[in-house]
Give the backbone structure.
Amino acid sequence: MTLRCALTKCMVCGREAIFLRSYSGEKLCKGCYVGSVEKKVKTTISSYNMFDPEDRIAVAVSGGKDSLSLLHILHKIEMKFPRSELVAITVNEGISGYREEAIEIVSGNCKKLRVEQVVTSFRELYGHDLDEIMNIAEEKGDLSPCSYCGVLRRKALNMVAKKVGSDKLAIAHTLDDEVQTRLLNVIHGDILRIGRVGPVLEGNFAGFVSRVKPLCEVPEREVALFAFLKGIEFQTASCPYREEALRNNIRIFLNRLETEHPGIKYTVLRSLEKIAPSVRELAGKAGLKNCKVCGEPTVTEVCKACQSLRDLGLI
């Protein structure tokens, strides 16, 4: 990841370079590297008009490198806009021996930055921890843990973002996450979903908080180095359910391709972005409605979270 050589100089300031961006050829020192990541995030925010100067921004912070890096970057940006506010939302899914550490780390970062933190849990919102849900799901031979966790987390974040009066909900999806998600949609045969994902998901329906992804143009490995160089404390342990997910296989595949063909993640993302408008036109505009069970926004009669819990006999 890093490049240390006395003869290699930063292309910006001339100091010793510590990082080489293979896909662009940039050689950067520590300070210029950190600045380049922050600049890329600012450019992404500006390009997609993600925020307004007076927004109350909820940041989904899990405790990992991505979400905590996003929190630190947005905090630095927000200091220039005194009428805006940040609030960190942490969801405790109920994964024994894993999530407790993350919540403590997030709390420490929030205190350091003087950012309000709100913690919610699957048990509080749904009456069951993820571990309990998965025990039942395994007995039925149902979906993977990430399938359940993903839909329940998305619903939880929207519910809490509304509760704290947020105008926007910032998600720490990196370039890798965006490409993986789109390829997963293709693999699962859900092509129409390609037209429903992107850097900004507008909240044009009462009860749905607009979602933005300021890190969507930054590769995951660059976010990791950013967090390390900034001295940001984050959870290093991987989710115990992660290895079971198909997403992990796609992650490994894409990383191998990126090593052999630098920049290919950007190429895949841009290609799928070109397809998205045609897919949206083909599918038509999917109107949101209120879930008949819980009242949360959904494109179907019953939201995916309630469908999943109902299938397991939990509601």
